[in-house]
């Protein structure tokens, strides 16, 4: 296995949650390309980036872990070689990142874990399926290459990705994009499909309206909590069953 780029020095370069939220609303971040659409090969097409910092602040302010989640992360963190650090690769234009990053901050706080957040991209959005550090030296594509998401017969630079580590940066678990109970491709595919008699402009307007409503619904909170449950359950299984 090749040596990980997640060294203590590299981990320390990541942003805390507070620093990340401030960065999201900063001129430096807003000058970077945001997401507009997908290329057929799964790379992204860039577009203007909007300030999503208020969304992160609002979700963090009202997010609370369930009692069992707090107890679970405290128990796990207290075990020998238990979880001590969380690394997140994020882009604020991603609804999955806006859903999960605030609750991950709460999880880290509850367990006394150190959380660090990294952008995936540099000034330009990732325009191909597989990141290439040589093409975008201002991005964290070398990190992303360690966390490619294998699904649907391919590998994808999905967001967010979450790596959970021991104090000495031995990886315990990785989480990709969304929890298993959120069948995102099915749900989004249905919402994006044209309805009878609907023109393309009408379809796009309706889809945008319905997608925003879904993000503001209780189901987004449910999926955020489910992601935490998946992480905690996987960490418990590793603790009980041992590593491969």
Largest sheet at a glance? 4 strands, mixed
What is the total tally of β strands? Answer: 8
Uncertain segments are none
- Total helix count? 10
What's the CATH class, please?
A: Alpha Beta
- CATH architecture designation: 3-Layer(aba) Sandwich
Residue-averaged pLDDT = 96
Shape label: globular
The CATH topology turns out to be Glutaredoxin
Radius of gyration: 18 Å
Helix content: 40-55%
Output the strand order for the largest sheet.
4-3-7-8
User: Helix/strand-derived class?
Assistant: alpha+beta
The CATH superfamily turns out to be Glutaredoxin
Question: Descriptors for this entry?
Answer:
244 residues; alpha+beta; Glutaredoxin; four-stranded mixed beta sheet; globular
Explain what you see.
The protein is globular and about 60 Å long. The two termini are 14 Å apart. The chain contains ten helices and eight strands. The mean pLDDT is 96. A hairpin with a 5-residue loop joins strand 7 (161-165) and strand 8. The strands form three sheets. A four-stranded mixed beta sheet has the order 4-3-7-8, covered by helices on one side. It has a two-stranded antiparallel sheet with strand order 1-2. A two-stranded antiparallel sheet has the order 5-6. It is α+β, with helices and mostly antiparallel strands and 244 residues long. The protein has a single domain, classed as Glutaredoxin.
């Amino acid at each position: 296995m090749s040596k990980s780029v997640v060294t203590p020095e590299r981990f320390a370069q990541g942003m805390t949650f507070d620093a990340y939220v401030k960065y999201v609303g900063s001129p430096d971040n807003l000058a970077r390309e945001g997401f507009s659409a997908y290329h057929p090969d799964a790379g992204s097409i860039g577009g203007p980036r909007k300030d999503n910092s208020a969304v992160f602040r609002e979700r963090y302010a009202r997010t609370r872990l369930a009692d069992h989640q707090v107890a679970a992360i405290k128990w796990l963190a207290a075990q020998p070689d238990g979880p001590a650090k969380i690394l997140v690769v994020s882009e604020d234009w991603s609804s999955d990142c806006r859903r999960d990053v605030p609750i991950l901050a709460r999880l880290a706080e509850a367990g006394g874990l150190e959380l660090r957040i990294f952008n995936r991209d540099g000034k330009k959005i990732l325009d191909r399926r597989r990141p290439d550090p040589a093409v975008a030296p201002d991005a964290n594509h070398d990190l992303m290459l360690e966390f490619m998401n294998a699904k649907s017969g391919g590998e994808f630079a999905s967001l967010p990705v979450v790596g959970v580590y021991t104090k000495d940066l031995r990886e315990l678990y990785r989480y990709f994009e969304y929890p298993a109970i959120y069948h995102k491709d099915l749900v989004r595919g249905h919402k994006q499909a044209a309805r009878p008699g609907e023109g393309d402009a009408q379809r796009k307007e309706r889809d945008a309206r319905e997608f925003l409503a879904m993000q503001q619904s209780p189901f987004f909170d449910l999926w955020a909590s489910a992601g935490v449950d998946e992480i905690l359950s996987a960490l418990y299984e590793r603790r009980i069953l041992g590593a491969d």
